[in-house]
Specification:
Blueprint (H helix, E strand, L loop, with lengths): L1 E3 L12 E11 L4 E6 L12 E4 L4 E11 L2 E6 L5 H5 L5 E5 L10 E3 H4 L3 E4 L4 E10 L4 E7 L2 E7 L5 E5 L4 E4 L10
Parallel strand pairs: 1-8, 9-14
Antiparallel strand pairs: 2-3, 2-7, 3-6, 4-5, 4-7, 5-6, 9-10, 10-11, 11-12, 13-14
Length: 182
């Protein structure tokens, strides 16, 4: 189970935007700037021609990008010099979901999973998915349970049996020791 790209920021009046990362430091003297992804799963920007920058989600044309040390270096229209790139440091970067490539069959955007009902394979309610933790080995789904401690479920095929985005349901099979003492 590979979840991609946290972020739930949506501009209802325009493109389907969500947070992909943050601009950090300029790279070199010619306006390139480093994009640090908000998830450990980098986004491929092939096909993306506009990024939305900062709190106001200002559209900026993406001229080029290239991978660099687990991040991407961006060239944005109108940013030709290091000081212009420096002025963007710390700005959040949003992308239009419709411009991103298709996901693989077993991949999901985290924002599509948050809020899903989590049930056991026998249909019993476990709780609601409230967060995803990135551990490096596999993602961990944080399930809020009514009146009980949150459950932490590894996003592996032995535990996550079915994800149905249309029904907004995640079906799980529990392994011994997964639930905290109730």
């Amino acid at each position: 189970m590979n979840s991609k790209t946290p972020g739930s920021d949506v501009n209802a009046s325009g493109p389907d935007l969500f947070l992909i990362g943050k601009l950090t430091k300029p790279h070199g003297l010619n306006g390139e700037i480093t994009l640090y992804y908000s998830s450990p799963h980098p986004i491929y920007l092939d096909g993306v021609d506009v990024l939305y920058i900062g709190r106001k989600q200002t559209p900026m044309t993406l001229l080029s990008f290239r991978p660099h040390q687990g991040r991407s270096l961006l060239r944005l229209e109108g940013v030709k010099y290091r000081d212009q790139a420096e002025a963007l440091r710390g700005a959040e970067v949003y992308a239009d979901r419709n411009q991103l490539g298709d996901l693989e069959e077993d991949e999901f955007y985290v924002r599509d999973l948050i809020g899903a009902t989590v049930t056991l394979v026998d249909g019993a309610l476990l709780g609601t998915l409230k967060d995803v933790i990135y551990t490096g080995a596999n993602d961990v789904y944080v399930v809020a349970r009514e009146g009980k401690a949150d459950a932490l479920l590894p996003a592996i095929h032995q535990v996550i049996k079915r994800i149905d985005l249309e029904e907004n349901v995640i079906e799980v099979a529990l392994m011994p020791g997964l639930l905290p003492d109730d």
